[in-house]
Amino acid sequence: MADAWQKVMDHAVAIARKAGEVVREALSHDRSVMTKSSDVDLVTQTDQKVERLIIQSVKEKFPTHRFIGEESVAAGDTCVLTEDPTWIIDPIDGTTNFVHAFPFIAISIGFSVNRQVEFGVVYSCLEDKMFTARRGKGAFCNGESLQVSEQTDVHRSIIATEFGSNRDPEAVDRIFCSLNNILSLPVHGVRGAGTAAINMCLVACGCIEAYYEIGIHVWDVAAGSLIVLEAGGVLMDIDGGDVDLMSRRIVAANNRKIAESIINEISAFSPTRDDAPPPDN
Ligand code: IPD
Distance (Å, rounded) from C-alpha 256 to C-alpha 251? Predict the structure, then answer.
């Protein structure tokens, strides 16, 4: 079965590259925007088109595989991870960046079997960087092996986070409380690329020591999670326990010491899980 997954991964890389071409092309002429759960939760026709393109091409090659896609879930599909081979797709991670032509945009494709991510592909399509990882076989960018930073002192670290699209006042207060605590440690700097997937790849590359966020979705982090692990990093929940990709909370770091230093400063909250049943009307 191992070789079979390699073929699937090769297809994921090819389709991510093709999707990247569509995104690059659309960037120059088609950025009209719609909203989803709130005025700041954005979607474009390109997100929808790219997701259709990926799903269609996978269905032709691997008709039994399942999907969890950001825009399909927004349109009403369920978001439940089973043991079946499942493609977890974010057609444009960094939709807000896309709308504003802020130059970090990724196509993120995770592939899970038995609820475990088997491979991850993140294509940073404006930088033309193809990040890949296969479980047990390392992480790569354009074929070069990746290794997380060796830093163990949080005071000498760069930490990435994002503000997401939750503007509930209590959540915003907690986000700023965490940021205040982390800046005041102090750390060398706080950054955010505007895409969870690229932030995680930056951890894998060793450019930053950690990335954390509350409010992300499984499609934002499925691929990046394996890329971080295979580059030698760690994943944890915001409360220090094991990460749960459906929980919408993640800490991805170069090592446990840095992860725990960050976790100590985070004011936690728990958004509705991705796999929560829809509310009764
Ligand atoms: C978003 C980006 C953003 C993060 C949000 C995500 P999208 O994904 O990753 O950086 O802050 O939580 O939802 O909507 O651009 O696919």
Answer: 10
